Amino acid sequence: MTKLLKLAWRDIWRNRRRSLLTMGAIVFAVIIISLANSVQYGTYDAMEELVVRLFSGDLQVHRAGFQDERTLSYSMEDDEQDWAESFEVYPWIEASSRRLSGFGLVSSDSSSAGAMIVGIEPEAESHVSTFANLPTEGEALAPGDDHAVLLGQILANNLDVAVGDSVVVLTQGYRSMMGADLYAVKGLIRTGSPDLDRGMMIMTLPDAQYLFSMEDRFTEIVLRTQDFREAGAYAALLRQELGEDRYEVMPWKALMPEMQQMRALDDAGNYIFYLFLLLLIGFEIFNTTTMSIMERVREFGVMMSIGMKPRQISLLVGLELAMKVMLALMVGLGITFITVWMLKDNPIPVTGELQQMYQDWGWTIEGISFSARPVVFLFPMVSVSIMALLSMIYPILRMRRFSPVEALRTT
User: Fold this and answer.
1) Which of 113, 156, 224, 372 sits most deeply, having the most CB atoms within 10 A of its CB?
2) Which residues in 117-139 are b (16+ Cβ under 10 Å) and which e?
3) Quick check: 117 and 43 in contact, CB under 8 A?
C-alpha cells in the first residue's frame, strides 16, 4: 500500500498542468460554495434575529383560536392564572410583556386610515422587542403616559400629522362595545418594515384596555428566551404547562411563515446553482481522469505484464484522484476558513439600491453577514467528495477490462 501511495503521488505531478487544473477547479468550487453558504446562513440569521426582536418576540401566548380569528373575544384575563409564576419555573424565559392588539379607524383633520392598535407595557416591552423604542421624532412611550400614542412614519404621513398633533380613534371594542377617544401624537416610529410603518398605532396598555372596553384583559403575552432558534422546543414545553385546550403557544416561525417560505425559496435557488457548479466539477474530474487513463494504457499494460493486478491499478488511479481532491479541499477550505473568520464579525455594509431592494421585500438589513457554522465547511467537502467518487466510476470500470496484450499494443 505504501508503494502505491508513493507511485500515486509521483503520478500526480507527472502532468503538473493537468493536475493543477483539476485541483484549481475544485478549489474554486469549494470557495464559491462555502462563501455562498456562509453569506446565506449569516445574512438570514442576522435578519431573523432582527425581525424576531423587532415585533413578534420569540414566543407568543394567546387564547386558543386567537391566531386564526384575531378578535377580542379570544382575550385573556389578568387573574385567570399567575402568569409570573408560570414563567419563573423556566430559566430560559428572560422577559415577558402583555399586549392588547385590535383594529380601528384613525382620523386627523385631513384624512383617515385603518390601523392596528397595540397596547403595550412600555417598561416590560423594551425587554422583549424594539419596535416601540425606535422613535425617529418625538419620544418613546413611558409608564403612566395618558392618551399619548406613537404612529408609524408612513401612517403619520398619510394622515398628515406630526408630533404634538391630535388624532381621533374609533373602534369596535369587546362584546361589540364602541370605543372613541382623542390622543396626542407623542412620537413617530420607523421600524424598517413597511407593513408596520404603514398601519400601526401604539399606546399604553391601560389606554388600550379603556378604548376597547377590556379592563384587566389582554390578547397576548410576548416572551423573550435565551435562544430564539430554540423557540419551537420551548413552545412545546409551555404547551404542556399551560394546556393546549385553553392556550396556544406560538413560536416565531409559526407567527411569520412567510419568512420561512422566502428562505426555502432562496435555498432552492442556491442549491440549483450548487448542483450546476458540482456538475461542472464532476465533468472536469471525469475528463481529466479519462484522459490520464487513456494516455497511460501502454504503461498499465507493462504493469500488468509484470504481475500487477487490474484491481491494484484501479486502486492506484483512485488514490491519485483522492489525493488531488484532498489537496484541493484542504486549500479551498483553508482559504474559506480564513476569509469567513475575518468577515464573520465585520458585516459588509448594505447601502443604496441593495438596501432598498431588501426594504421593498419587507426586510431591514444593516449588512451582509457571514456565518461560521460547521455546515458551511462540511457541505462543500462532502458534496465535492461524492461528485469525485461518481466521476471516477466509469474510468476505473473501463480500466479493469484491459488485458495486458491489448494494452501493450496500444500506441
Assistant:
1) 156
2) bbbbbbebbbebbebbebbebbe
3) no
Across 66-143, the runs of DSSP E, i.e. the strands, are 76-77, 93-107, 112-120, 135-138
Burial 183-219 (b: 16+ CB within 10 A, else e): bebbbbbbbbbbebbbbbbbbbbbbbbbbbbbeebbb
The beta strands (E) that lie in 177-326 are given as 178-189, 200-204, 217-218, 220-225, 247-251
CA angle at residue 22 from 396 to 33, to 5 degrees? 110
Residue type, 135: P
Name the most confidently modeled range: 2-16, 139-153, 267-281, 374-388. 139-153
Overall average pLDDT of the 224-237 stretch: 92
Q: What angle do CA 286, 290, 295 make, to 5 degrees?
A: 155
Average pLDDT in the 8-36 region? 82
Helix, strand or coil for residue 306? coil
- Residue 410 has φ and ψ, to the nearest 5°, of -70, 135
Share of the chain above pLDDT 90, in %: 36
Angle between helical axes of 393-400 and 257-295 (0-180°, round to 10): 30
SS3 assignment, position 161? coil
The predicted pLDDT at position 403 comes to 59
3-state secondary structure of 387: helix
> At 402, which amino acid appears?
F
Residues 6+ apart with CB under 8 A from 292: 15, 18, 317, 320
Q: Which is nearest to 134 in space by CA: 41, 202, 207?
A: 202
Q: At what angle do helices 16-51 and 374-391 cross, to 10 degrees?
A: 140
Distance of alpha carbon 195 from alpha carbon 51, whole angstroms: 13
Amino acid at 259: M
C-alpha–C-alpha distance, residues 8 and 312, integer Å: 11
Element (H, E) at 236: helix 231-242
User: Going along 108-251, which residue ranges are E strands?
Assistant: 112-120, 135-138, 148-152, 166-172, 178-189, 200-204, 217-218, 220-225, 247-251
In 33-165, which ranges are E strands? Answer: 59-63, 76-77, 93-107, 112-120, 135-138, 148-152
How confident is the model at residue 361, as a pLDDT?
A: 53
Cβ-based neighbours of 402, under 8 Å, separated by 6 or more: 297, 300, 301, 304, 310
Q: Does residue 309 have a pLDDT over 80?
A: no
